[in-house]
Amino acid sequence: MSLIPNKLVPGLEIDVVGGGHFSLSAEKPQQFTMLVFYRGLHCPICRRYLSELEGVLPELEKRGVSVFAASSDTQDRAEQAKSGWALPNLRIGYGLSIEEARKWGLYISRSKGPTSTGVMEPDLFNEPGLFVVCPDGSLYWGTTSTMPFGRPHFNEILQSLDFVILKNYPARGDA
Predict the structure, then answer these.
(1) CB 138 within 8 Å of CB 11
(2) What is the pLDDT of residues 132-147, one digit of tens each?
(3) Which has the closest alpha carbon to 111: 122, 119, 100?
(4) Domains of the chain
């Protein structure tokens, strides 16, 4: 399924590491909500990517962007990622169903066994995606990948957000 800019994205209701529940419809950012879907505890590239995201959270917050990361990992694996990857401020959701991942247009992979870090891949898991959602629930910007590689760099995202907010730049790709 492909999401279309300026159209509503699927709902997202998911449990959060440390307790509580995330509801996309309850987010009230000044500018946008950024959803970062990561592959899971088994992925060393996700570890680096979410660590970079943790580092730019204050800059995103200054721009009025709320941030949430989620995967199809179990609660235990998500807790291990949050603590082991030193992500004290990043909200992490767990238990994203494969069906929900597909609604977001995420690619799904099957386990190939343990990764280079020695952590076993789940039987099925989502590949990465990043979505910037307007406060009204419509898609502003989205990107997905079939592989763990080639994700948007957060410094480029920050620069892009500065331009977008300053110029009131419209969402693109809806024709």
Answers:
(1) no
(2) 999 999 999 999 999 9
(3) 122
(4) 13-167 (3.40.30.10)
